[in-house]
Amino acid sequence: MSNKENEKSPEDALLDTREAVSDDVPPGVDRRSFLMRSAVVGAAAVMTGKVVSARSRTLTAFAESLPEQSAGAAPPLSNDLAVVKKSKGPVLTTIDEFYKVGPGPSSSHTIGPMRITYDFYQRAIKLPPDKLAQATALKVHLFGSLSATGKGHGTERAALAGLVGKEPATVDPLFLDSLRDKPDQTFPVKLGDKTVTVGLKDIIYDATKGDFKHPNTMTAKLMAGDAVLLEQEYYSVGGGFIEWKGYTPPKKNAPKYPFATMKELRAHADNNKLSIAKVMLANEMSIAGRSEEEVYAFVDKIINAMVATVKSGLSMSEDDVLPGPIKLHSKAATVYKRAMDDTYQSDRGIGALSAYALAASEENGRGHLVITAPTGGSAGVMPSLVYGLIENRKLPLQKVREGMLAAAAIGYLCKHHATLSAAEGGCQAEIGVASSMAAALVATANDAESRVVENAAESALEHHLGMTCDPVAGYVQVPCIERCAFGAVKAWTAYAIASNEIASRHRVDLDATIQALAQTAKDMNSKYKETSEAGLALSVVLC
Length: 543
Ligand code: SF4
Known about the structure:
Shape: globular
Number of helices: 23
Number of strands: 9
Largest sheet: 5 strands, mixed
Mean pLDDT: 87
Distance between the termini: 55 Å
Bound molecules: iron/sulfur cluster
């Protein structure tokens, strides 16, 4: 292409009459109505004097030509959920809400349900003594994706642990293992002067399909015989976040630098000559009312937990077999050994990053403690890069801390405008977001300017769009564990590209890609959203 052609605005499609009507008809759309809509949108643009690209016309025509609701499309989320309403104000998520330590394998199917039943227990014990005296049982019903894939995720064990007063950050993984090994165990639960007995039989796998407010819906009940003393409907909305019927988000202080988009966040950084990490630090301090030391103390705790999960995973024997019917052999130690072998020195970087991600992700598969960044399924991605920056690159801790804050900003924006839940958006919402966060981490830790941080995050997310969630046998192992390795390597690739291009030439901004993530999540067939009803979950036959 000549320089002259290069100067032509790529948005100004009207300069080329061949683009006046897009004849690229997307599948599943009536050709005639699509072409008509495309022509109408183009004509309207000419009449109003607006410049509308062929791509914009195609998208508009596509949207207007679609049938009301595509067959198999996921049911819409309820507008009552805060996770849906939240896109209307500035980002108010804080770092301690976002990075959570808890048992794997899935933040929405283990950490969320455990927090939910723990919350219900706290509500139940506040009932008047005369009511508590009538209590005979505690029951938990799992619906939607929690019911469809909960068995493979150990949701019933997590839910029971919460009922007996265990919290995700402090629960001993051996307690959860013991529930798996001895499923008939029962436990006394004290409710005032009354004690009821609970066991796994009290966690009920209920309907997988229905008109739920969220695909991860559950109810908890305190029973007196057949009568219900207390009942609460809950939603595990992704990344270990929970809501309930009637939920209102907690009141928070105003952020020092309010932003709802990456564009706004970057403007704060650039106008105030701050890094994205410093803007995030100021916001963490103002929203949560914490000192800088307190914010960094929490970030350090998370960094240390990430390093520990990689170390723990690497220390497992090469012969280790993960729990569950897949009988998947651990790979982290073997891949690491080869990466450190001088014979294969040129593969070392990719090999080591992959091994670290496999190590943390296999820990997740074992149901051991992991860190949501943003979820349990994606819990290998960020630790891989954190470990690599600390152990291999030997970067100062402060650089990694700042990277963690910038990575959180990316996760917050994805949560704010799209989703972190595979049950809502497929794997793009888990590994895609994790990879995007990790790219921002690496860029920030390497002192990249704000535009490069955005470009790296954008690139990593862009190349995960459309990725489905189809865990084999409902276990967060295949494709999840290797997928974490790919997410980590893609994050590094995204940084490598972003730091070597002229930043202003990057054509796609992060806000647009997050919008694409949200739209793709809406359009994705519900079979590919953590239900194990399609994709690899169907095509892989376990012998
Ligand atoms: S396929 Fe992706 S989204 Fe689904 S459980 Fe595995 S890691 Fe999570």
